[in-house]
Specification:
This protein is an alpha+beta fold. A four-stranded mixed beta sheet has the order 2-1-3-4, covered by helices on one side. A hairpin with a 2-residue loop joins strand 3 and strand 4. The longest helix is centred in the middle third of the chain and has 16 residues. It holds the Pfam family Thioredoxin.
Length: 125
Amino acid sequence: MELKTLEPNPAWAAGAYEETVDTLEAFDDLVYKVWGGDWCSDCRSQLPDFGAALDAAEVPAERIEHYEVDAEKNGPGVDEYGIEFIPTVVVEQNGEELCRFVESENVPIAVFVAEKAQAELGMPE
């Protein structure tokens, strides 16, 4: 099942996040695994902007996996990945976890992911 909350926010301003979009675009081997629920207020407020950032970075759909969970946090991959809070975004490279955004940080999901990827891997050439 697809998360409707991951549909890109049409009002999101890619120009305000140019460095983030460039970073997400540069890492063309990352897989984004997103757990959330359309019923969840945190997901409804955060995931549309993340979806817009992935869209602006032209991340192909086959590299974005989304998993809907119910109010008890039951759903695909929850046990395997230790999902307790949503939204949770796990970023993987070559099947290995690179970073994880869990529910809230002091920056938007896309910024968090881009900064972590760049810190861990440096910028691709």
